[in-house]
Every structure is written in structure tokens, then in C-alpha cells.
Amino acid sequence: MHRIFWDCKLSGKVTVHSLRKTFAASLHRCGVPVKVIQELLGHANLNTTEAYIEVTESDKIEAVEVLELVEGLHKKYLSLSN
């Protein structure tokens, strides 16, 4: 495993656990449902999977931007239907 990390030029502390967390977070950011991620990780408890998926500031900002986009489209639709 250390050879793979070295060949990939991964810096910092890389562990199997950190790779699993990165895998879970990446899937979540791509819109994969948490229940699917839970099964892929082999977790019996959904709370364990949720602990792997940390919400970042950029996740929060993106969620608000999506909401603003939907709101803008809704207002545009309402103005066109009048």
C-alpha cells in the first residue's frame, strides 16, 4: 500500500481510513444517495456513513446557490406565464 501512495505522489498522512472517507465524500458530492454509499462502505448503521461525509463550507455555498438558481427560474417562469 505504501508503494502505491509513493507512486501516486500522495503527501501527508494517507491511511486506508482517509481513502474510505475521501471515497465516501466524493460519491456524495457527485450526488450518490447516502444509502448507496452506506452499502458500498459496508456500514450496518447509516450514522457511521454520515460521519464519513463531512459537510464543507463549499457544500453549503453550493446548496444556497442551487436554491437561488431555482428561485430565479421560478420567478422567470411566473413572469412569462402572466
What does this structure look like?
The protein has 82 residues and is mainly α. The chain has one domain. Helices cover 72% and strands 0% of the residues. It contains five helices and no strands. The chain has helices spanning 2-7, 16-29, 34-41, 46-52, 57-80. Helix 3 (34-41) packs across helix 4 (46-52). The model has no long low-confidence stretch (mean pLDDT 84).
SSE layout and pairing:
Layout: H1 2-7, H2 16-29, H3 34-41, H4 46-52, H5 57-80
Helix pairs in contact: 3-4
Q: Which runs of at least 5 residues are low in confidence (pLDDT < 50)?
A: none
User: What structural class do helix, strand and pairing data support?
Assistant: mainly alpha
Distance between the termini: 63 Å
Give the SSE order as H and E letters. Answer: HHHHH
The gross shape turns out to be: elongated
Mean pLDDT: 84
Binned, the helix content reads over 70%
**What proportion strand?**
under 5%
